[in-house]
Amino acid sequence: MIEVRALYKDWKEFALKDINLEIKKGEYFVILGPTGAGKTLLLETIAGFYIPDSGEVRIDGRDVTIIPPERRRIGFIYQDYSLFPHLNVEQNIEFGLKSRKKSASQDTNRKRVKEIMDWLSISHLAHRYPATLSGGEQQKVAIGRAIAIEPSILLLDEPLSALDRRTQDHLREELKRVKEEFGITMVHVTHDQTEALVLADRIAVMMQGRIMQVGTPQEIFNKPLNEELADFVGIENVLRGVVRINENGIAEIEVDMGVTIFAVSEYRDGAVKVFIRPEDIILSKSIGDSSARNVMNVRIKELHDMGPLTRVKLDGERSKHSKRIELVALITKQSREELGLKEGDAVYATFKATSVHVVRG
Amino acid sequence: MNSLSGWPGTEKLKREKVYILFLFLGLVLVAFVFITIGNLYYKQAEDFSGLIDAATDLVVLKAIAISITMALASTLIAFLFGVPLAYFLARKEFMGKSVIEGIVDIPLMIPHVVAGIALYGVFMRYGLIGAPLRKLGIVITDAYPGIVVAMLFMSLPYLVDTAREGFKEVDPRLENVARSLGASHWRTFREITFPLAFPSILSGAILSWGRAISEFSAVLIIAYHPISAPILIYEKFTSFGLRASRPISVLLISICLVIFIMLRWLQRRRG
Which of A170, A191, A300, B73 has its CA 20 to 30 A from that of A215? Predict the structure, then answer.
């Protein structure tokens, strides 16, 4: 288990401010945040490359705040792999074994290196030097080198960001395999939301040196705590409104004169913000029977082709008293073609009360 | 680039015109060095027996041997203290860092005679360091240590500056990873940082060694004797002229060039 308590650190243009985290044993924990949030600095501080200005880091209950990195048994993987360029693949993987197991013979080490290379299917690269390897191969060697020392924790700093899509997919599976096979606690830093969604048991969102929210992927992507987080996780529809009534946990929120949204929420009154993910909005040309509580008349303002998906900008009917509501929906290209949607069309936007996330504001 | 092969030659040249201009400008300097040294050899070739005489003259050989070995000693000392300093400067930011870097570079900026006088002031019998050393029975001036002291002073910036740049090029993240793998800071330095910076350190050492051998003015002031090669050359020149001093010069340059080329070759092969 990793515990980080009230951690502060200033380093160059980066800063960590009051970081508190509890990462469980064997968990795949992702720290998600935009570039410059201080994610790498946090990871490097957990690894012991930096001593924090204040606060503490505990591993399995032991205070390691000022313990040097070589005595923490933490594997570390950087985005650019950081293989030792003057050592070949075998020697890179063996490096950690030489320092940890003083008693182990060279034969034992070699055997272990061989096992790891087999497990990662990189045995054929044993005598190659890092400069001659592809990005994916290098990252596999880096993984091999880190797990050779049988760490209890593996810290990964954007490990997939420099790779092409296909290699990313492949290595994502390798990382899952590492976690499952060895039961290593994984702490993975990334700015890529898909990566976080696919890999994480839990996610911490980090912005400007602070942890903003910790939760399951479902919580992070559907129930952000504030507008900034909503925006970061791609919730484009943010509406302001006032709760008028709440019946059995269903709040009726007036977001505009005469426009009410139903949402699953505990709030009984007061000003709120309403978040709806664009992919949760269904477009149709006619109102059919549906269990969805929210149906709005809208007009298509713009259609943007995004490969397999189409992003649709919608304008609500203008009421006399207030500004019009704007929504964004994400639909498949196929749906768009089947419905024959084009700019200016009047359509119905439907979404469920459970797809609406409500926060105070 | 293959698609260009069908182009008329002048078109290709036009694309390269900045390079061509710069090449001609640069060649002026190359020619300057080459002609100067080449002429020395050319003239000496007319007086081959003079070269043989010099090469068999024990006084000459001893002076050259002194220059080479004292320069080696100076480089080893610069290495021993300069590499740690270079690593520290490459990795740490602190108040007054630029002051330290400035102090290291002072020898590059002051006239060598001035450096010689300053060294003499410190290392002479009654000098700040010379006096206590004398009590221990160590004499610096007009002795081998004097030559080394003068050479070290003049040549140390080359080693420190080059090694520092070499260490800077070693990604600190490699050190981080090595430490996370259980290597102590010391082992990390020995097995990761130092080997990766070694080509630069060797370059610095070669520059430093070359600078040490060629030092004249500072050595002249602090240790005229035991007589080292540049001083012998100067002495012959003032007493007997160009004809007497040239063969020693040719001999010294030749030995230095051979060593220099060998080291460079070794360095290439490692890289």
Answer: A170
